[in-house]
Specification:
With 445 residues, the chain is α/β, with parallel strands linked by helices. It is 51% helix and 15% strand. It contains eleven helices and ten strands. A five-stranded mixed beta sheet has the order 1-5-4-2-3. Strands 7-6-10-8-9 form a five-stranded mixed beta sheet, covered by helices on one side. Strand 4 and strand 5 form a beta hairpin. Helix 1 crosses helix 2 and helix 1 packs parallel to helix 3. The protein is rod-shaped.
């Protein structure tokens, strides 16, 4: 469960926060978060600035001083193995030792006084890390130039990156701090570190990170691990969800002894890695299960949304269809009203029907499309338009029609056209006193 101060963070920021706490050993989550926020969540820059601050170099943000950046080294269960230098043997050995003792004491005393005074004149250049990867590469090149290429595979990255990879891969990380000025460093590198059996063990069982303490990157790691003498080796691993030093080896150790000590440390702490792997697998399985559940939920949600969308579209389609039908119905009713009004208007405008005794009258029998018959009299002098208006005013007549005569068979020009702008009269159309005309329905044409 995330700490309360992590609740408003993204998953990536939470991971960086926990990673930064592992690398620095800072207990306060608020302080870790504050430092990361000052560096815009750039964990590499935050770790470097934190280490520089502990070496006496002011932070660019001038935060209040706190304890040095380091992995967890306060565990009382850390395995420590120190190889002391052999005591002189015989009168000659003790004589040489006693003769050289004053000179050695004077040399190291003057050297320490000189270094102490130099700090007030010029700050230690190692206190500011500017190119940590460059420090690692430089040490690798100098190591190969002096001891050859037969050596354990160096991790080509910063100390923080090595910790991150060891944590991610659940592997042991062996850290070697090289003291250039120490009398045992040369023998250790040449005879122990480059021994084939040591190379095989390191390359197959762990990550190996090394740097000289004369380099800024090595110096800051030295300040974090606080070695007592050289050569110095520290075994680091993920323990109780924190990167922890589980073994310290100091002094000139022989190849077989080194293999035994490293194997002992790994065997003693292997259960922590196994437990962490099981926990990580369980978390991964839980995450996969949760992801599958989320995907199933999202798929179900999308299916429900799709069903709802189709229902909305169907309702919208029905609504538009009903509106269209209603509009068509209203339009049809309006058309019928207009048609009826026009029929009534035509009927009102018709001239009166001539009497049967009128010699200029014409009796016309109309045969309608529904096989009904209508009879009416018209005057010879009236236009054929009157015949059309009469038929149009009838309730049973079609909406659009033409009038045809049978002998000879022809269509009477009852409505104005380009050929007949002014329709002829009945007499001009050649109708007789009694005629039978046929009404042809043109509504569907």
């Amino acid at each position: 469960m995330a700490a309360p101060e992590e609740r408003d963070l993204t998953q990536e920021q939470t991971e960086k926060l926990l990673q930064f706490q592992d690398l620095t050993g800072i207990e306060s989550m608020d302080q870790c978060r504050h430092t990361l926020e000052q560096h815009n969540w750039n964990i590499e820059a935050a770790v470097q600035d934190r280490l520089n601050e502990q070496e006496g170099v002011p932070s660019v943000f001038n935060p209040p001083p706190s304890r040095p950046l380091q992995v967890n080294t306060a565990d009382h269960r850390i395995y420590s193995y120190v190889v002391s230098r052999p005591q002189p043997r015989g009168l000659l050995g003790w004589g040489y030792y006693l003769i050289m003792l004053p000179f050695r004491f004077t040399y190291y005393t003057i050297l320490d006084i000189f270094r102490f005074a130099l700090r007030f004149i010029r700050p230690d250049p190692r206190s500011r890390v500017t190119d940590p990867v460059g420090d690692i590469v430089s040490f690798m090149h100098s190591f190969e130039e002096k001891y050859g290429r037969a050596h354990p595979v160096f991790y080509q990255g910063t100390y923080s990156q090595a910790l991150n990879d060891a944590k991610r891969e659940l592997r042991f990380l062996l850290v070697y701090l090289h003291g250039d000025d120490h009398q045992d460093s040369d023998e250790f590198c040449r005879n122990t570190l480059c021994a084939p059996q040591v190379i095989s063990l390191i390359n197959t069982r762990m990550l190996f990170w090394a740097c000289s303490t004369n380099k800024p990157e090595g110096y800051r790691v030295s300040q974090a691990l606080r070695e007592n003498t050289y050569p110095f080796l520290a075994m680091i691993m993920l323990k109780d969800r924190r990167m922890t030093v589980v073994g310290r080896l100091e002094g000139l150790i022989q190849p077989d002894d080194l293999i035994n000590q490293l194997t002992f440390i790994m065997d003693a702490n292997q259960t922590y890695l196994v437990s962490e792997r099981l926990e990580r697998e369980e978390r991964n399985q839980t995450q996969v299960l949760r992801q599958q559940q989320d995907e199933a939920y999202l798929a179900s949600l999308r299916a429900d949304q799709e069903k709802e969308r189709k229902k909305r579209e169907e309702r919208e389609r029905k609504r538009r269809k009903e509106e269209e039908v209603q509009q068509q119905k209203l339009a049809e009713e309006k058309r019928r009203r207009n048609l009826q009004e026009e029929k009534e208007k035509k009927l009102e405008c018709l001239p009166p029907e001539p009497s049967p005794d009128d010699p200029e009258s014409v009796k016309i029998i109309f045969k309608l499309p529904n096989d009904s018959r209508v009879e009416r009299r018209f005057h010879f002098s009236q236009s054929l338009t009157v015949i059309h208006d009469f038929l149009f005013s009838l309730k049973e007549s079609p909406e659009k029609f033409q009038i045809e005569a049978n002998f000879p068979r022809r269509v009477l020009p009852c409505v104005p056209s380009e050929e007949w702008p002014n329709p002829p009269t009945l007499q001009e159309a050649g109708l007789s006193h009694t005629e039978v005309l046929f009404v042809q329905d043109l509504t569907d044409e």
